[in-house]
Fold this sequence. Notes:
The chain is α+β, with helices and mostly antiparallel strands. The chain contains two helices and seven strands, in the order E-H-E-E-E-E-E-E-H. Strands 1-7-6-5-4-3-2 form a seven-stranded antiparallel sheet, covered by helices on one side.
Amino acid sequence: MAFYQFTQTQKIPANLDFVWDFISRPDNLKEITPPYMGFNVTSNSGDIKMYAGMIITYIVKPLLGIPMKWITEISHVKDKEYFVDEQRMGPYKMWHHQHKIEAIEGGVLMTDIVTYIPPLGFIGAIANTLFIRNQLQKIFYYRTKAVEEKFGIWK
């Protein structure tokens, strides 16, 4: 069974506290997710900051506009450094997403590391080659642009 990893970094010209405050609130995820994903947080997370053990439920349309329930748990949090969300139920056989931030000169370096196993074994491996990885790249490209709109463009 193959697993895959996708990594993206982004420099953000903003204060670490401000960036952390934004990314550590589940309700802000919709703002940085492409509209075509039909992403909606359905749990009562409200304006609560993430904490270890937090369960977040979503409706997402990852394929052909078909709505799917996705449940993640925030398994680790280190304030103003990182948090990890892990899929408990959803479209992947396994999903582990590390969100890391660190202060750098002039702003913040944000790093996302997604480790995943597609569903359906061999068929999932083919699907990853044909479209899953490409879809992740598109989602994170959108996220980059949305974060730039929110915090500004690194110069």
